[in-house]
Hints:
- It contains 7 helices and no strands.
- The protein folds into 2 domains: 2-81, RNA polymerase sigma factor, region 2, helix turn helix motif (Rna Polymerase Sigma Factor, Chain: A), CATH 1.10.1740.10; 102-170, Orthogonal Bundle (Arc Repressor Mutant, subunit A), CATH 1.10.10.
- The protein has helices at residues 2-27, 30-46, 57-101, 110-119, 122-133, 138-145, 149-170.
- Helix 1 packs antiparallel against helix 2 (30-46), helix 2 crosses helix 3 and helix 5 crosses helix 7.
- The N and C termini lie far apart (75 Å).
Amino acid sequence: MEDDRSIIEDFLQKHNRDLFRFIYSITKHKEVSEDLYQEVLLSAYQNESKIDNKDSVKSWIFTMAKNRCIDFLRKEKNERMKNQLLLKEQGMKGIQEYFTEKKVLGNLALNEIVSSIEKLPEIYRKPIKLFYLNQLKLKEIAELCQLPISTVKSRIKRGREKLQIELIAWA
């Protein structure tokens, strides 16, 4: 056992930086790479008895690292997809929270807000929907609508003002 441990320690003395760089090249995130690096080393020490060929330690550890990175990326992709769904749901809540924070409304129902948005003129409705529902940034909306950012900002502001007037009637 002590011999195998020294094999891993010898590997680390020679390839410590290479292993970290390899993991970082896949994840592109320093903190994640550090965590995965530690997981790989822990796993290597825990499974050191499984090393058959002392010459294959490098490929064995790098394969473990690659597999950990792939697992992480899969998990991250699934989390990102879940978060995108949540953001779309929260987009509507964002509009509701905006008007609640501005104390324009009490607890106005979401469907009343949506109904009011649909009544807005197209020049205000489109930027409001893109900003709150699709969670696009002002720059992205400007590019999509082929408008200056200042125009997008003013249309969102005016759209909100028109919504406030419409929603006060509901309240």
